[in-house]
Amino acid sequence: MEETLAAGDEQDRALVRRYLAGQRDAASGLVDRYQKRLFNVALRMLGNEQDAEDVTQTVFLNAFLKLRTYDPRYRFFSWVYRMTVNESLNTLKRRKHTVTLEDESAIPAPATAPDRTAEARDRVGKALMGLKPDDRAVVVLKHFVSFSYEEIADVLEIPVKTVKSRLFTARERLRITLRERAE
Amino acid sequence: MLNRDQIELIHREIDGTNTPEGHAAFRSLMVADPEARALEADLREVTRLFHQAGEREPPPHLKQAILDALPVPARAAPRTETGWLTPPAMVRWFVSQLRLVTARTEEAIMNKRTMIYGGVAVAITIVLAGIVTGFPPLGGGAGTIGGVEQASRYKGRSMTQADVTLANPEIAVLFQNPEILRLVRSDVFRKTMQNSAFRELQASAAYREVMTSAAYREMAASEAYRELLASETYRELLASEAYRELLASEAYRELLASEAFRQLEAQGAARDVRSAEAMRELQASEAFRELQANAAYRELLASEAFRELQANAAYREVLASEAFRELQASAAFRELEANAAYRELQASEAFRELQASDAFRELQTAEAFRALSRSEALSNQFMREAMRVAP
User: Fold this and answer.
1) Burial B73-102 (b: 16+ CB within 10 A, else e)
2) B74 and A22: CB-CB below 8 Å?
3) Residue A32: which of A10, A60, A6, A1 has the closest Cα?
4) What CATH number should be reported for the domain holding residue A73?
């Protein structure tokens, strides 16, 4: 796993170097590597596809604008995930309306998805939107990106202890919500 | 009833992070406590649902929209072994640059949404360009005259003509700099000093506040900012007829004055260029539509200088800097933007020429100069004194 991460880091660094050297196809490479993951993080955070798309675009735009100042000692993926979470939190703050558990528009599943998957997405999406945004961020990074406690702490710039505390509290809340909705 | 430690033990087991001792404690708990078993089953169901929900595919157009919006990366000109370009190599390099621009334009035209966003981003970038260039930099090791420290000296009292003499050490030191002396004797300097908008600006509290703010000093001291101001492309753009027309256009002024634009600025335009509700409002505004139809604006967008500027690393760095964002969000900055004198000056050719001059930027760091330049009589006295100095 460590080797895979290290290889991924090196690939990121190589793409960043190539982009800064003026090779536009390197941007395409970075977008290919991260657009799906960042879009999904934003989608789970926001519960709205259009907003998730906007956030993903914003994050990439900012990342490329700031690449010259990016410190390669740090992991590229931590950097872009941090930007995605922060941008999603900013979007939530700016929203005039709030999405409630009853909001049927929260993360609509595509019509082509198998029924059970669609149902799971629907249930999970609604339950997630019932969490506080900071707690939701931890759950999303843990369960949809499969980050360790330490990686989540690095991305969100909070202590590992806080990560655990938020995660356990959030899952407890999700457990209750999902059980109530199943009954 | 499970206690906190037991609940955490179960969560850690779900995450696979228990130590061997923790795992053993978990097994014992499962055997002994039905409530613990129920909790574990519930949590596993939650994680199963997460797994089942899986990942969604992003919209198919997303990647292209991202790439369309990206700045053109700065390209290094090709080099031969000797380090010099042969003429054919130079031609090939220029053609490759043109191809890149054409391809990007075509891509943008294919995607209406991107065009709209791109248009807004470009409009904002133009506005920011005006903002960035609007201030000559302060201090930060810029020269021997210093600035902020001297500010307090003239703050408490008015300057008189008697102060503006070679006997005044502050004035004398200005004329010891041959570049400043040459500048002060130039026609372009005389024109600016005779400009009432310039005097008004020098007297503006907002201008003073911005010039002495930490954010501005930080930005002005940055290498990127200096590089930007020294860039030929940037100067070319600002000197273009299209840029001047744009600054003078009603639509541009309305855009600057609009609430949506102010919101964008307050949030940091580069950061929120795609997602802010303010951006959507801006798009829908009459001023923005007018701006898009403005011939000067379109000419500017199509200009090589503007495209090059977008690719200029220093420019991007300045726009992305915290100092610049902080400045944008400040009340003084917004007040200055709304200042008619400031806008008038930006449209003046003499002022633009001055801004490109290192000597003028250095001169501006002297509080004595700022104090005297607020008055026509003192300005004239200053120039008379300059003429007395032997070249």
Assistant:
1) bbeeeeeeeeeeeeeeeeeebeeebeebee
2) yes
3) A60
4) 1.10.1740.10
Cβ–Cβ below 8 Å for B66 and A31: yes
Q: How confident is the model at residue B76 (pLDDT cuts 50, 70, 90)?
A: very low
Mutation choice for B interface testing from A33, A59, A61, A142 by most B CBs within 10 A: A61
φ, ψ of residue B78 to 5 degrees: the values are -65, 150
CB distance B319–A65 less than 8 Å? yes
> Which tokens go with B317?
């760095």
What 8-state DSSP symbol labels residue B208?
H
What is the domain range of residue A38?
Answer: 5-182
Is residue B326 within 8 Å of residue B100, measured between CB atoms?
Answer: no
Q: Which of residues 264-283 of B touch A (CB under 8 A)?
A: 270-277
Q: CB–CB of A68 and B15 under 8 A?
A: no
Tens-place pLDDT, residues B315-346? 777 777 777 777 766 777 767 766 777 767 76
Separation of alpha carbons B389 and B285, rounded Å: 55
Give the tens place of pLDDT for each residue, B165-185.
777 777 787 888 888 888 888
State in Å, rounded, how far the first CA of chain A is from the last one.
40
Asked whether the predicted pLDDT for residue B30 surpasses 90, the reply is: yes
Residue among A27, A56, A116 whose CB faces B62 most closely? A56
The interface pTM score, or ipTM, of the predicted complex is 0.83
What is the tally of structural domains in chain A? 1
Residue B148 amino acid letter: V
- Give chain B's end-to-end CA distance (angstroms, integer): 93
- pLDDT, tens digit, for every residue of A15-51? 888 888 888 788 999 999 999 999 999 999 999 888 8
Residue ranges of A 136-165 with Cβ closer than 8 A to chain B: 142-144, 148-149, 164
